Amino acid sequence: MLDQTTDRTTDRPPDRPTDRPGAPVPHRTPGARTATLPLLAVWLLTRLWLVPAALKISPFVGGGGLDPSVSKVYTGWYAVLSGGSFPLHDVSWQYPPGAALPILAPGLAPGLDYDHAFIVLAALCDAAVFALLLWAARRRGRSLAAPWLWTVGLAVLSTMPWNRFDLHVTALAILALVAATARRAWADRAFGAVTAVAAVVKVWPALLLAGTSRGRRTRTAWTAAAVTGATVTAGFALAMPNAFSFLAAQESRGIQIESVGSLPFHVARHFGWSGTWAAKDGSHEFVGPWVHGVSIAMQTSTVLAFGWLLWWRRRSDRTAARVLPDAALTATLLFVVTSRVISPQYLVWLIGLAAVCLLRGDTTQRPVALLILAACLFTTLDFPLLYRGLRDHASWLSIANLYVRNLLLLAAAWLSARRLRRGTVPARRPV
């Protein structure tokens, strides 16, 4: 499914002839249409299975309530937000004010209750992303690896993506990166503005700005992002009280039991460690000896990762069009593996960014995309299948699965940064 185009990581290849302004668009052959049919069939069949399963209307998943993230958490937030205020004393509300947009949107859907409307809107976001990736891949005769990765990656994650608003944010991030490729005067401003809107919903899309090329394009995109972000944030702050209550909740975050920092504690539970897990800050976190120290270490590693990104920006050649999505994926991977939290929905971000990278044949991130796809499988095994054994019983099978998943993400982050550096930082000439 992912094509085998050779990556060139040491020399920046020239853009394809079809990428130059005014170049003719390749003729659509019957073979190209035929190649699209299996992709459309797989996307349709997987969604016909997974979306009804998320809605609990599939005959194969039985009855019961919808995912608690929607039926309890999001519904509770909706009740507060629709009353004109942000949640003030809810420790699970840890998002910028723009997160109110995907939470409030299902209330506008006619004829549906909130829970089902949320999943339906998420399904529409998925369909929009698939259509955008397919259009972007076919418009210049490129590989269909990008929509294939999106189709298969989300399917491997089971019903989880449609029960989280991370799909909405990822859709905005993909739209921003695709808009940046347009050969129009407004492209950089549109990229910056859409990126800012996504970042006001959930902070991580600000990392898309890491790969902007030097000079005018950086100034234009960053200015548009700053103005849009400030405007949207100020609008929420003026319209609804407690817009910045999420900052206090973020300060107390600990080591969530699925993060990289949690790995030693899972093993330590079998060797007399006196700590345990607790429902805290909207997730399950470890509490006990050494946890605070590991939390400090994880935060330090995040600072070091961003220091590396700053070094890379100072030294790199970012003129190639592939660098923007490649750098976005690298920056986000570094953020994920050094975070004190790795929730299953983080894989939706990574699949989306990797798919945009695969829109270009000269991307440096092709093997990284395969590692992320493999991590999706172990993520689904971890949550929900093996999660109770990991949390409550420290099952060796659950621990081994988590180790594999996190080691895959660590390998993806290392490989992504290495290939990005080799593909953009000129080698030093001998003195």
TrEMBL record:
Keywords: Cell membrane, Membrane, Transferase, Transmembrane, Transmembrane helix. This is DUF2029 domain-containing protein. InterPro entries: GT87 (IPR018584). Residues 1-31 are annotated as: Disordered. Residues 1-19 have a biased composition (Basic and acidic residues). The chain crosses the membrane at residues 37-55, 117-137, 144-162, 190-209, 221-240, 290-311, 368-387, 393-415. It is a multi-pass membrane protein. Belongs to the glycosyltransferase 87 family. The lineage of its organism: Bacteria, Bacillati, Actinomycetota, Actinomycetes, Kitasatosporales. The keyword DNA-binding does not apply. It holds the Pfam family GT87. It is found in: Cell membrane. The keyword Zinc does not apply.
